[in-house]
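pinned: reference chain
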Amino acid sequence: MKLVLGNLVKFYRRILRDHSQPVKISNIADFERTSVSYEQRVLNENWTFDNKPRDVETGNEVAPNNDFVIRYLILERRLSAYKGSDLWEYVRKFVNSRNFTSILSIGSGPCAVEMEIAQGFVRDYQWDCIDLNENLIRQATKRAQALGYNLQPIVGDINQKKFDKPYDLIVAVASLHHFVELEKLFLSVSNALKPDGEFVVYEPICKSGMFLFRRQRLLLALLFLFLPKKYRLNHQDYGAEKRCDRFYNEYDRSGWTFECIRSGDIPQLLKAGFKVKHWGRGMTFLRRVSDSVYGPNFDLRKKKDNLIVGFFCLLDRFVRFFRLVPVEGLFFIGKRK
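pinned: its structure tokens
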């Protein structure tokens, strides 16, 4: 009886009870109420991105021993597309339909995505790319110069920067969830857009702190109940040690950096700040089982693993279509109000 009660309490605490950041962050001053200052988080963030594995030629983050995450990204980009075009293709079509396009990327990192997109440009453009990390911007500058792309990488803290010229297109690829003062940022973006300019976003929109939505948590708990141990090995959260998780390992991933610091606020702030042209809904739970935490457990060269991954993809599409679980991804196109 005592064991049963103990398991019920554990189930309630881990699955039924919602979790959230201990301190809700809405501006930089709020960090004074946390154990990690804004300045220290900047250092931690730079260290984290400096040490991510990257492809030598492109600068893209690579996923060692993880083909599942590639399948997830391809599926999400296809399902959230605008008239058949994901962000990459949409930006190419936008630029190639004009004589000249001025573009700004915010939180561009090493500009790997920007250079990948620019390969398809056939019209003139200038692409300014701003990021906090000086090392990544330095790498981007060398790569852009070597390949002949008209990219202007800039080091800067976008939380505190004002844009001093108008742009036809402003792009954010998986960067907004690292920003704190989103209201100020979106106002600056809106002011920096030309009258017919567009703000194009591809972004995770999970709960702030990267916590799970309750229905998502219940679904993952059910999946983890039937998954063999080898698929529940955690490759990221315990240092060099790999532990088998009974439940999805949920904790405040914004605790020491800016990871998903206000990701839950992004949807309503985008709707409030811009006229919506496209709201492309991403996947619901697939990110959680395909990323660097559990994704390396699935070897797509093996039939059984491939079948499980295929089932996960179908299940995510099912619950997404019937809106049974909130989505965690967004492809957004907006214009000035």
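why pinned: The mean pLDDT is 94. The beta strands are 100-106, 124-131, 151-155, 167-173, 193-204, 233-234, 243-244, 275-281, 329-335.
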